[in-house]
Amino acid sequence: MPFIANSSIMLPEYIHFIPLIIAFLTGILGPVVLVYVKHKLFRTDKALEARKKDFKQSLETQELINTSLNTLLHKYNLDRLWIAQFHNGGNFYPGNKSMKKMSITFESTGPGVAADIMKMQNLPVSFLSPILQKLSDNSATGITIDVFTEEDYALRSFWETRGVQTVYLFPIKCLESDFIGIFGVDFVKRDGFVTDEVYDQLRAEALLLSGYVAAISVDKSSK
């Protein structure tokens, strides 16, 4: 027997409201959703542009630091210039207290002088504490280390194994006077005691480098 559609089937009463519901969703909520999506995308675009701008400024500042180190190196016939910065090096066990370490982040070397930057990473701050205590003093503008007369034999070995004879160290501080790093000058090929004029120039350069280093160390997203 052929199938005959039953024309007497009753549809639910609310089915007549479906077109009205669709019209409401597309006419009222649609623009709202669109505005919300555009707002989210706009905020994402702004955040992305801010990160790109920050990255570009960071690269430009890093180039200024490298240029400054190279200029000093050649102007005063120095052997090795470097900058080290403090950072978090993990956590102590079993607690969660942060380990303080430092790494060389910038370096410039003269002819015949080996680069140290890849070897001088994640140095425990505790090992260098005698030096860092002197540099962190608010009145300290720099210290000179004659490796051959260094009384701390661990530090003396640290310098000697790298062929260093004389070291000049200057504190790098941010505007709030926080101690954030070290500007170092290593003499490898000779004892390297500099004149007062050169020392004053290195000390002045440390102040300039402090501004550069602070600029690339600050997390702008936290502001």
In short:
This protein is of the alpha+beta class.
Characterise this structure:
This protein has one domain: GAF domain (Beta-Lactamase, 2-Layer Sandwich), CATH 3.30.450. Helix content is 43%, strand content 21%. It contains four helices and six strands. A hairpin with a 6-residue loop joins strand 1 (80-91) and strand 2. Helix 1 runs antiparallel to helix 4 (196-217).
List the helices and strands and how they pair.
Blueprint: H1 18-75, E1 80-91, E2 98-109, E3 123-124, H2 129-136, E4 143-146, H3 153-160, E5 166-173, E6 179-187, H4 196-217
Antiparallel strand pairs: 1-2, 1-6, 2-3, 4-5, 5-6
Overview features:
223 residues, alpha+beta, Beta-Lactamase, 6-stranded antiparallel beta sheet, 4 helices
Q: What would CATH call the class?
A: Alpha Beta
Spatial order of the strands in the main sheet?
3-2-1-6-5-4
Rg (C-alpha, Å): 32 Å
Residue stretches low in confidence (pLDDT < 50, at least 5 long) are: none
Proportion of residues in extended strands: 15-25%
The description of the largest β-sheet is: 6 strands, antiparallel
- State the CATH architecture: 2-Layer Sandwich
- Per the principal axes of the C-alpha atoms, what is the gross shape? elongated
Task: Determine the N-to-C terminus distance.
Answer: 80 Å
Counting structural domains, the number is: 1
Q: Structural class, from secondary structure content?
A: alpha+beta
The whole-number mean of residue pLDDT values reads 80
Going by CATH, what is the homologous superfamily? GAF domain
What portion of residues is helical? 40-55%
Count of beta strands: 6
Number of helices: 4
Order of helices and strands: HEEEHEHEEH
